[in-house]
Amino acid sequence: MNDKSTWEFGTRQVVYGAIGAALYGVLSWVTNIFPLPAAGNITFRPAVAVLIFFGVAYGPWVGLLAGFIGNTLGDALSGWGFYWHWSLGSGIMGLVAGLVMTQISDFRAKDQIIKAAIYGLVGIIAGMLFASLMEKVVGGIDIKTALIGYFVPATIGNVVVVGILLPVLMIAFAAVASRRGR
Amino acid sequence: MSTHPLVIENLTFKYRTRPENAIENISLELKQGELLLIAGASGCGKSTLARCINGLIPRSYRGERRGKVLLHGKDVADLQIAEVAQTVGSLLQDPERQIVASNVFNEVAFGPENLGLPRGEIVERVDQALKRLNIEYLRDRETFNLSGGEKQKVALAGVLTMNPSILLLDEPLASLDPASAHEALEVFRSLADEGKTIVLIEHRVEDAIAIKPDRLLYMEGGKIQYLGAIDNLPKEIDYTQVKLPATWVVQRVKELNQAAETPTPLAVEERGEPLVVFEDVDFRYDEELPFVLKDVNLKIYAGDLIAVLGPNGAGKSTLVKHAIGLLKPTSGRVLVEGKDTRKMSVAQIARALGYVFQSPTHMLYAPTVREELEFGPKNLKYDSAEISKFVNESLSSVNLEEFVEYPPLALSFGQQKRTTIAAVLAMRSKILVMDEPTAGQDFANYTHFMNALCQPSDGAQSILSANFAATLFITHDVDLAVTYANRALVFGDKRIIADGKPQDVLKDTELLLKYRIRPTSLLKLNLDLLPKTGKFLPAEALAAYAS
Amino acid sequence: MLVAWKYRPRNTFIQRLDPRTRLIFLFCVIFGVSIPEIWDYRIVLPLFLVSLTLYLMARIAWKDVKRVWTYILILVVFIVGLNALLSARGGPSSVTNIVSPVIFTVPLKIPFTQLGWDIPVTVSKIWFSFNQMFRMLTMTLLAIPIPYTIDPNIYGTAFRQMGASDKVSFTMDLAFRFLPTFARDFSITMDAQRARGYELESMEGGIFSRIRRLAPLIIPVVMQSTVTGEEVIDAMDLRAFGTNRRTWLKDLKYAPRDYLILGLGIFIFVGCCVLRWGFGVGGYFVPDFFTNLFL
Ligand SMILES: Nc1ncnc2c1ncn2[C@@H]1O[C@H](COP(=O)(O)OP(=O)(O)OP(=O)(O)O)[C@@H](O)[C@H]1O
Ligand SMILES: Nc1ncnc2c1ncn2[C@@H]1O[C@H](COP(=O)(O)OP(=O)(O)OP(=O)(O)O)[C@@H](O)[C@H]1O
Ligand SMILES: [Mg+2]
Ligand SMILES: [Mg+2]
């Protein structure tokens, strides 16, 4: 768990990338079945908290793979199709959040949770901005529409979800991690 | 230098995160074709030893390692992991977590693919391995849908394709029903007969000795307590720590001249109005799927302590999920305290009937044990004074008071299991239903746990009789039914095949075998002694009657 | 809840194509239209027809995609509508630069005040909306069939043979492997919590407390998965994962039909670039016949 290096890529990253992807995919799909309240066109996707958590706990590669593959899986399960720019947007969210990994040593410490949440926030903004701007390029809509139609609602929803669920996940993980060490 | 496949010399290992040695001064030599059984209580270092043999120590787990592990004369620490993988094949406890591919063929091919072998050779090796284990028919199946026993065999095939000379099996039987476990053991025996060296780690010594291991290694606190032949019954083994054949236990108790414990007083039968009633229940998960339950009739009365036995996939869990209303019958009805479950929400039924799921990891989530216990009562809208009273009482009855402010996810498996029971206790349900309460726990832990539940302590009532009007548990372990239940059900062919006192239901060996239940030595001994005892007793108590 | 893949084996031309062909073709069309900013209906419409043909050739049953199409059509209309209203200056700048007759104006007012804008809807904007709708649908028609027509078991191999590393490609396969497991864990957890009186559907509390109430569902599944991960790592290391260059058992080979579709894709991409940048054709304009409709 210690001597973590940010950009290492081995079996560990493969396994947690895949597990994160599967969870992100399943949860995105499940919350499609039990729709959460949507205000206007803001949709809440609780799975995003799990994605950010995987980034924070296992690093940028895991965040990137979990986000990209997970979003693709979620869309595939729900039958929407394949939208590469939204998948990559999710990947960017996870990747940016993952940059904080080496700075987190105690998942229960308040200041570290806040730090993780800030990286998560930056990740969400970066990822959703990328996807919305791609939507502008690909869909040929103008920048205001991209921001009002896609970026703002997606970002608000994701930030709310991460703000509420990320701390809970981190505290739970601290307890699990205390049981095993490597 | 010895050319034995496996030589361990003075091996000691300490995990970096622990102050004490996990294993200490282990020395041992294994010949080709030898089958070694390793037993010992949970935490005695069995898996640590396994990790030293397959090279995960020192590669993936860090700590201080002293001594040597030689594979065919070469130290495992000096070999490439690819070389180790082709010498030692490891099968881990839960096949579900060892399987990495979505379909059987890819799973079995995974190792050789990683070695970068040519395609033709991989296909050949896969077919050979499948044939060796007689599972060619699984070749094109998806791994997700396999039964526990099939998963186990597929995982083993995946290991065999690497052509290892040593097989390392870490508790391979944990998730199997008795018949499947027996089949798996016979496969291990035949592999040893073909010349593979086998290290079998298993709590269930009773089951494992059926295939006649050449030697037994018994560990305690990281050290070798006994290493030698099986035949001359090892006196060093503590029968409260690992599951031994009942006859051994009886012999041991006599030798030690221990006063036999007072036999479990089973709850008195007090029939009255039934608490739960199944009336002609039929059920299927989907219109296109076959029926899982057909014509099920069952009444549960106050005072019942029911064990439900039956093969994997028979529908036992489906049956009990009807009692709590998670599933509603396709036809017929289920009544809980006289009310139809169709007319009640699951939350309403939960006040009457508490359901403990098999794995605690499926329900524990809260940051402290207290909050975990408050979850149920809060959902049921009890008032807060009541809640804290119920929580405190249930904590003390499962002996977890010192952990109130602990996170449940940081507790040991056995403690987590007790937390889940306490969580249901705190809801003050009248009936307790448990799905495989002992699965995945070691013998010492689960006897302790079951005794705590079922046996009265210091003159007080047992947890069960003090808190619940009736209890029902599903199990694959016949001895649990023998030792703790006062009523046994055999479930198979979509319905209840037998229902009655354990001594009546379990005496029909033919019926048991038909439903994949293997009579254990404890059951056999109990049946033999029944004329003298009049009821089923635990092995220690039988010593007083055995000649 | 059991994971049901949308994929079904079907004996169609589309499903006989190499999955790599399908993905590359998709990207050729997306980038062919969007990088050189093609807006000319004389290009968009034929491309739309190509996509529609391929979509129909996939022979996906209507009942499988009814919900998806409804949702996507609503989204497309919403976004296109929003765009038309907001793009006072947006889109390709020519949309509003062109002097175009105003047909009506939409007064956008903050309720109960006089503040706001009057947004003129011009002929140009209407034509632009049509174009945009077809452009979006051209891409959507190609994107939707992917999960229905590509075998989930082949993604890893496909990515490997498109040049991704062994490890990244295997991550794909492993993710597919775990998906049904976690879906099952999720439904067990759901049952276990409901047995403790938990009701997800209950409508109490605001949005925040309702999201917080998901914790008992999400935490057990996620934490279980982090534990599972450690064992999977061991299991893979013990079978020599990552020590050599892997052999991938399945081997994808392009057939003549793949070259045909790949050729078409490249033709579309290159064609769009050349037309737009070489000949200046393909930009936005309002054809006279359309303007005349309103005069
Ligand atoms: N990864 C680890 N990091 C730190 N300590 C560990 C680790 N794994 C095991 N231990 C500790 O080492 C000791 C031996 O554990 P080990 O897993 O070898 O026991 P075991 O005999 O296999 O038990 P079980 O029957 O429960 O599987 C225990 O005290 C355990 O807590
Ligand atoms: N959600 C579901 N959807 C469809 N079929 C199911 C579902 N759950 C269980 N089944 C099927 O119903 C049958 C009975 O399953 P059940 O889990 O009740 O068996 P069980 O007796 O509890 O087995 P085990 O001893 O392995 O726990 C099995 O064939 C199983 O595949
Ligand atoms: Mg172990
Ligand atoms: Mg079951």
Can you describe this structure?
- The complex is a heterotrimer of chains A (182), B (547) and C (295).
- Chain A has 182 residues and is mainly α.
- Chain A has helices at residues 11-33, 47-58, 60-78, 84-98, 110-139, 143-179.
- The longest helix of chain A has 37 residues, at 143-179.
- Mean pLDDT of chain A is 89; it is low at 35-40.
- In chain B, 52% of the residues are buried.
- Chain B has 2 domains: 6-240, P-loop containing nucleotide triphosphate hydrolases (Rossmann fold), CATH 3.40.50.300; 271-365 and 430-542, Rossmann fold.
- With 547 residues, chain B is α/β, with parallel strands linked by helices.
- Chain B has 22 helices and 20 strands.
- Helix content of chain B is 35%, strand content 21%.
- Chain C has one domain (13-292).
- Chain C is built from 13 helices and 2 strands, in the order H-H-H-H-H-E-E-H-H-H-H-H-H-H-H.
- Chain C has a two-stranded antiparallel ribbon with strand order 1-2.
- The chains are: A mainly alpha (182), B alpha/beta (547), C mainly alpha (295).
- The interface between A and C is large, with 68 and 83 residues.
- The structure holds adenosine-5'-triphosphate (ATP) (2 copies) and magnesium ion (MG) (2 copies).
- One magnesium ion binds next to helix 11 of chain B.
Q: N-to-C terminal Cα separation of chain C, in Å?
A: 58 Å
Assembly category: heterotrimer
- CATH T-level topology of chain A: Arp2/3 complex 21 kDa subunit ARPC3
| Unreliable stretches of chain C | none
Q: Which outline of chain C best applies? A: flat
What ranges of chain A have pLDDT less than 50 throughout 5 or more consecutive residues? Answer: 35-40
Structural class of chain C comes to mainly alpha
Q: How many alpha or pi helices of chain C?
A: 13
| Tally of discrete structural domains of chain C | 1
